[in-house]
Write a structure and sequence with these properties.
Layout (H helix, E strand, L loop, with lengths): L5 E5 L3 H12 L5 E6 L35 H8 L12 H17 L7 E5 L2 E7 L2 E6 L4 E4 L1 E4 L14 H4 L4 E2 L15 E5 L3 H13 L4 E6 L25 H14 L3 H8 L3 H7 L2 H19 L4 H13 L2 E14 L2 E8 L6 E5 L1 E4 L13 H9 L31 E3 L5 H4 L5 H24 L5
Parallel strand pairs: 1-2, 1-7, 2-3, 7-15, 8-14, 9-10, 9-14, 10-11
Antiparallel strand pairs: 4-5, 5-6, 11-12, 12-13
């Protein structure tokens, strides 16, 4: 009788939970050891918030974790007494509860009985042991696995290149917005938020709730805020795949938006093709998109729920939140706080802004070397992973297998899913995209395990 194989899934946010559930769905599939260093499984950074102001950026009708069951989330909401008409934007905390309920349900099924183990710990290193992996845990323990899936979520934001070293170590600088306790924000003075995207919106909402009288300034190179969803609107426009270069694709997109009743339907209509478009572009075109078009794509593609947009509008109208476009020259310590030297767009005279607190809201980073994540540093050191060509995260092939520093998938049982694989798939940060990748990755993992059992070394 063959030994039942084990898969280590590192990270129990959405990416990790969905991959684990798909592995457990497989008849006679592997055992799954789901490792999570946070207090609760199934939430990750995105769904661990308890703030009622933090809403999903996608309507509930599109948030089923299972693409083959599009009503799965709506049915769960109804069973749990959560009001939703299918187009409602529910809280992120509610979605975290949904994921946790799926884990509990999976653990109780006959098919998965005895196959799911939860490890409340962090992973510090992976080591090859013959055909298997040794997973080292932060608390000093470890275990053996036949395959490993990295589901690490987003890497921390890059520190600004203009940040003075002394400022970087100042208590007035918050390098990671999700570790900041809004109740610890200063009572007086101004808070400067670096970035004007979705991360900034979340932080501004949290700060305004904890400190209603706080003054906030959000700075980014272009000063662009995410656009809003409509409360209701037309269905997505059926779109053919956009062809050609970045410029040609954008021209096609603009033409379609100009002919539509609402541009949102066009952006949503092109979504099923985005990964294929990204794959077709050579690296030079991908870099051109990131350099010139990414900010505009992000604000139209990743939109705000109407109640969130209304709250941001209120903060802006009241003067509690100001946004500005400009380039930061340097950030230096000053009188217990920090001073930002920056050049506003269209102005020649530099400005100086004092801040009691500066928060890095520039969004997910992609720098493997500077992530501060012990496991990532260990894998880089061993040459088991490398950055993708655009430095958005880790390099993987089309089956989500990790590419090593030699440019090959030397270890067919080492995988990654979720936002850290943006370099290969680009749009893989939201539920509708990740749920597909998780299912495909689970199939690849099971295929690799089957091949491993048939190899001469396993016989």
């Amino acid at each position: 009788m063959r030994r039942r194989q084990t898969v280590a899934v590192i990270g129990a946010g959405f990416s990790g939970v969905l991959t684990a559930l798909r592995l457990l769905d497989a008849p006679d599939g592997p055992c799954v050891r789901l490792v999570e260093r946070r207090a609760r499984f199934g939430q990750g950074a995105a769904y661990s918030t308890t703030s009622p102001q933090h809403l999903l950026n996608v309507r509930a009708a599109n948030m089923s974790a299972l693409p083959e069951q599009p009503l799965h989330f709506l049915d769960w909401l109804e069973r749990n007494g959560v009001t939703s008409e299918g187009r409602t934007f529910v809280t992120r905390a509610c979605y975290g509860d949904y994921l946790q309920s799926m884990l509990r349900a999976a653990a109780e099924t006959a098919r998965a009985a005895g196959r799911l183990m939860l490890e409340a710990d962090g992973v510090t290193a992976l080591h090859r042991r013959g055909e298997r992996w040794r997973v080292e845990l932060a608390m000093g323990r470890g275990f053996e696995a036949d395959a490993v899936v990295l589901a690490l979520g987003n890497l921390p934001p890059h520190p600004p290149a203009t940040l003075d070293p002394d400022a970087a170590h100042s208590p007035a600088y918050a390098a990671e917005p999700w570790t900041l306790d809004p109740e610890q924000a200063p009572e007086n003075g101004q808070v400067v938020l670096l970035g004007t995207g979705l991360t900034m919106v979340d932080v501004a909402l949290s700060l305004s709730q904890a400190r209603p009288d706080l003054q906030m300034l959000a700075l980014s190179r272009r000063g662009l805020l995410p656009r809003r969803h409509l409360g209701s609107g037309p269905a997505p426009e059926p779109m053919d795949k956009l062809d050609g270069s970045v410029t040609q694709a954008l021209c096609q997109l603009r033409a379609a938006a100009g002919a539509a009743d609402d541009w949102r339907a066009v952006v949503d209509g092109v979504r099923p093709h985005v990964q294929a478009i990204w794959r077709d572009w050579p690296q030079a075109e991908r870099r051109r998109f990131l350099r010139h078009a990414r900010p505009w794509w992000d604000i139209h593609r990743h939109r705000l729920a109407p109640p969130v947009a209304e709250r941001i509008d209120h903060l802006t109208a009241s003067g509690a939140l100001r946004t500005a476009a400009g380039r930061i020259a340097r950030i230096t310590p000053a009188d217990g706080g920090l001073e930002i030297h920056w050049n506003a767009r269209g102005e020649t005279e530099p400005r100086r802004t004092r801040a009691a607190l500066v928060i890095n809201c520039t969004g997910p980073g992609g720098d493997l070397g500077g992530s501060g994540e012990p496991l990532v540093a260990d894998l880089v050191r061993q040459g088991l992973i490398r950055a993708d060509a655009c430095r958005l995260g880790v390099d993987v092939d089309s089956d989500s297998r990790l590419v090593g520093d030699g440019g090959a998938c030397d270890h067919p049982t080492l995988f990654a899913v979720g936002p850290i694989t943006r370099g290969a798939f680009w749009e893989v940060t939201a539920v509708p995209d990740i749920r597909v990748q998780a299912a495909e990755c689970a199939r690849s993992v099971i295929g690799a395990l089957d091949a491993l059992q048939l190899s001469p070394a396993a016989s």
